[in-house]
Design goal:
- This protein is an alpha/beta fold.
- Helices cover 24% and strands 31% of the residues.
- The strands form two sheets. Strands 4-3-6-1-2-5 form a six-stranded antiparallel beta sheet. Strands 9-8-7-10-11 form a five-stranded parallel beta sheet, sandwiched between helices.
- It is globular, with a radius of gyration of 18 Å.
- The model has no long low-confidence stretch (mean pLDDT 94).
- The protein binds flavin-adenine dinucleotide.
- The site of flavin-adenine dinucleotide has 23 residues, from strand 4 and strand 5.
Length: 250
Amino acid sequence: MARAAVLGRLSWRAAQVVAVRDESASARTLVLDVPGWPGHLPGQHVDVRLTAEDGYSTQRSYSIASAPAGARLELTVERLEDGEVSPYLTQVLGSGDPLELRGPVGGWFIWHPGDLDPALLLGGGSGVVPLMAIVRTRIATASTTPMRLVYSTRTPDTVLYGDQLRRLGERDSALQVDLVYTRRAPPGWEGPVGRLDGARLATLAWPPADRPACFVCGPTGFAEAVANLLVDQGYAPERIRTERFGPSGA
Ligand SMILES: Cc1cc2nc3c(=O)[nH]c(=O)nc-3n(C[C@H](O)[C@H](O)[C@H](O)COP(=O)(O)OP(=O)(O)OC[C@H]3O[C@@H](n4cnc5c(N)ncnc54)[C@H](O)[C@@H]3O)c2cc1C
């Protein structure tokens, strides 16, 4: 039974794009229908494989952005202008097109809906994607687990899920959403502009003594810097989970 489940996750599946949604000028969400999808937990990712007519094939990993919902999955892809795969996923692939994927992948960077410990979510750039799945699952399961999302992004133009996060934060006092602008903030912004540091973290996060479960995700540099910052500030290393969005080509 367990073997069948593992083989299922390792098998490539034929998915279909049923909708696309632009999240910013350079990021797009793909809504997929995946027949036979076994379900996932928030934080997990899929491998996507593209195959050219001449048989050349390449694959990349993408976090699942949506809460578990039957055979439906959402991925949000940030386009790298010189990238091989992300320009195709964000500019060429459209509704009705097929897409090959396998998963769900990942057994560590996962939030379980039954977890009651406060969850501190720290995302940089497209690293917010699996954190969004965690936030969405919290809502879908009516969880009351306190959550704080600290989302580091370059400018107001690069924010993903901006309106949705603002609405969710306003509606739910146990869900706090804070943006950290590293290069340029919107007009009227009264907070600092720059990378997350210890002083800023102290104003946004629960103190280390509260032992929150920490989820850190983003480009490798961001994930390592923030994980080190958390340890330096006294957060328990065994409570810190990181996911690095480094290059993932096979
Ligand atoms: C577990 C996991 C989950 C991921 N989830 C997401 C996600 O939800 N959304 C998303 O947009 N991306 C995600 N990524 C990154 C994704 O897998 C690809 O690396 C990314 O889309 C670039 O692929 P590409 O083919 O366009 O670029 P490539 O052709 O692979 O690379 C082009 C250039 O960009 C550099 N580069 C590649 N990837 C990155 C990166 N992530 N950050 C900075 N520079 C990079 C390369 O070194 C190269 O110089 C995830 C990666 C991992 C490992």
